[in-house]
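Dear colleague,

Thank you for sharing your sequence with our group. We've completed the structure prediction you requested, and as agreed, I am returning the results in plain text so they can be pasted directly into your records. Please verify that the sequence below matches your submission; if there's any discrepancy, let me know and we will rerun it promptly.
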Amino acid sequence: MRTVPREGKLLRIFIGEQDKWHGQPLYEAIVHLARQQGLAGATCLKGFLGYGAKSHLHTVKLLRLSEDLPIIIEIVDSAEKIQQFLPQLDPMIGDGLVTLEKAEVLLYRASGATPAL
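Please find the predicted structure tokens below.
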């Protein structure tokens, strides 16, 4: 099983639900690319309210669903693995925001794994 160093990086990608990459939802393309590149894991979160650089408000309202809700993709791995991933990510992002911050990895294990003593 692969390990992630205790001092890792958190890559956070803010995009819109309707953003595309070669006809595929961008969030799916990014997660599939992260998996192909062997990154430790990726999670997509859908926002219910937000705005970005263009200041367009995207929201879920009662009786009406926005067609372009905010999506946040979070990827945690070593600084080295994240740095190798960034050049491939850059051409995929048209409108959006990408941030990078320190992450202290406290636990990374697959279900059913026995804890190390």
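Summary note from our side: The chain has a mean pLDDT of 87.

Kind regards,
the structure core
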